[in-house]
Amino acid sequence: MDPYLCLDAIPNLFGILDTSIAPTLLYYSYIPIVFLSLFFSLFLFVKNRSIQTGSLLAIAISFSLWIINELVQWIAVDAWLVHFGWQMSALLQVSLVFSIIYFVYAFLHDKAPSFSIKLTGFLALLPILALLPSTFNMDYFDLVECQSYNGVLWLYIYGLQVALALFAVFLCVRKYRQSTLPEGKKQTLYLTIGTLVLLGIFVATNILGDTTLVYEFNLIGPLGMALFIAFMSYMIVRFKAFNVKLFSAQILVGTLLFLIFAILFIRRIENIRIITIVTLALTAILGTVLVKSVKKEIEAKELIERQKDQLEKANIRLKELDIQKSEFVSFATHQIRSPLASMKGYASLLLEGDAGVLTDQMRKIVETIITSTKTLSSVVEDYLNISRIELGTMKYDLRDVDFGKLVTEVVNEQKPNIDAKGLSFTVSVDETHAYPIKADLDKFKQVLMNIVDNSVKYTPKGSLAVSLERDATRGVIRFMVSDTGVGIAPDVMPKLFRKFSRASNASEANIHGTGLGLYIAKEIVTAHGGKMWAESEGEGKGSRFIVEMGEAK
Q1: Considering 221, 246, 271, which residue would you say is the last residue of a domain?
Q2: pLDDT score recorded for residue 157
Q3: pLDDT in tens, 380-433
Q4: Cα–Cα dist 305/311, whole Å
Q5: What is the pLDDT, as a whole number, of residue 2?
Q6: How far is Cα 16 from Cα 4, in angstroms, rounded to an integer?
């Protein structure tokens, strides 16, 4: 007999393995769970590459290496290869436990363990690395039976594994107490149970197998990984753990496929009946749960469809009400505009002396009436324009317009307001050049008036600059108003051109307005085929409003 071959071992695979000497359920217990753990962790890692999924993949790899090493110890025929497997067992067992602790910490804290924790772990691992090839690890190895007898180092290994398991429990309990949300507490609870099951079964079966020399206990160890994956799967379905969305039906179908796949690794025909009965029972249970899960998801989908139909009907009704509202506003503002015109007209007659000489006090009152009616007329006109825009009845009389002359006209009309606030003012328009555009003169003038007026209102002090320039390369004319006013906050910018939108600091600056001017201006510019936008570096840093129009040919 070759002294370097294990007793009764006959190589039948690769010349170094004897698959016939393995315990009955070795392959059924080991190989399918290796595939399951690797597939599960790789799937999560591909879906969401994070510290949590990366550390979960590390657990699967450590577990797979430990399983491969266990298989070598069971079925290798070369005594020296078996000896090497026994020797590496200490390192692989502890490495798997360390990877589990790393995962628990990363999952709970969303970051890697601190340097001090890593250093402590390395120092705890150092004695094992140093004593691995010594009699402290393997006190004696029987070359004939290919069996090892553990040394005193294993007392340290068992104690370290238990200590690490208790540390994992400590981390989970502390996180559970710190969590304020019920969902967070439940997720931590399931992580705690899953980790305890994995560590408990793994450590307990290894200790029992090594101390009793009944190594069939090790066949139960991988069951802890299967249960751990079950807990992680539930956390994904229930709490969207790892930021991965999976339905319970997908998990259950995968479990059923795994059970059927595992049957392929039963070695002896006499065990088929027992395993098939167990698999059938589990399949029946999972199938029932699957049917209920699918039924529940179908009911949820049907509910969503019903709610979608209800929302569509409600949306149609809201659109009808919105049209009715716009029609009412249009009608009401039309009715208001006529009395306002009369008030403004009669007040003007009084101011001009057609009804007699006014005292200074009476003149101030009439001037206030005229100012108020102008303001109210402007508001009414804004509401009328909104109604026309929303109802699609806004009409545009497009004709050739000189953008430069229009800007000069607007600036001249706005200059009294600018001077009244004491703002320094510059205009940059080359009046020797024409700036032809196609536009509705009155409505486009309203756009420019709104933009300049807006900058004046939101600039308590400082300066205002108006410019107009041609971009011959792009064939556009750009109008820009820059100010040193209150500026625009980043969170306000996306909603700046919405209806009734005003700057958050408008009230503080005592700025009055409806928040309709910029909305109307942008709608009119867009209807003309142009672009309008704003720029600002933030609050207190001023702003720029730009309008671009295509140059008329």
Answers
A1: 246
A2: 92
A3: 666 666 666 666 667 888 889 889 899 888 888 888 888 888 898 899 888 778
A4: 10
A5: 47
A6: 11
Q: Is residue 274 part of a domain?
A: no
Q: Measured between alpha carbons, how far is 229 from 43 in angstroms, rounded to an integer?
A: 12
The CA distance from 553 to 534, in Å, is: 27
Number of residues written out for the chain:
553
Q: What are phi and psi of 322, to 5 degrees?
A: -65, -40
Number of structural domains the chain divides into: 3
Q: Is residue 273 part of a domain?
A: no
Nearest residue to 18 (alpha-carbon basis) of 6, 32, 30 = 6
Is residue 210 within 8 Å of residue 143, measured between CB atoms?
A: no
β-strand 424-428 against 463-471: which pairing, if any? Answer: parallel
Instruction: Verify that 40 and 125 share a domain, yes or no.
Output: yes
Q: Are residues 374 and 429 in the same domain?
A: no
* Distance separating alpha carbons of residues 249 and 496, to the nearest angstrom: 46
Last residue of a domain, one of 199, 217, 246: 246
By CB atoms closer than 10 A (0-12, 13-18, 19+), residue 269 is: exposed
- Strand, helix or coil for residue 478: strand
Residue 420 belongs to a domain: yes
- In whole angstroms, what is the distance from residue 405 CA to residue 519 CA? 24
- Cα–Cα distances in angstroms (integers) from residue 300 to residues 251, 295, 297, 305, 315, in the given order: 18, 9, 5, 9, 22
Q: Of 372, 546, 373, which is closest to residue 476 (Cα–Cα)?
A: 546
Low-confidence stretches of the chain (pLDDT beneath 70): 1-4, 7-9, 13-15, 245-253, 256, 259, 267-271, 286, 289-290, 293, 321-338, 340-341, 346, 355, 374-393, 500-515
CATH number at residue 363: 1.10.287
| Beta-strand relationship, 476-483 and 463-471 | antiparallel
CB 5 within 8 A of CB 145: no
DSSP H helices in 110-181: 115-131, 153-178
The SS3 assignment for 310 reads helix
Task: Please report, as a single letter, which amino acid is at residue 343.
Answer: M
Specify the pLDDT at position 340: 67
pLDDT attached to residue 1: 41
pLDDT at 96: 93
Domain span holding position 167: 19-246
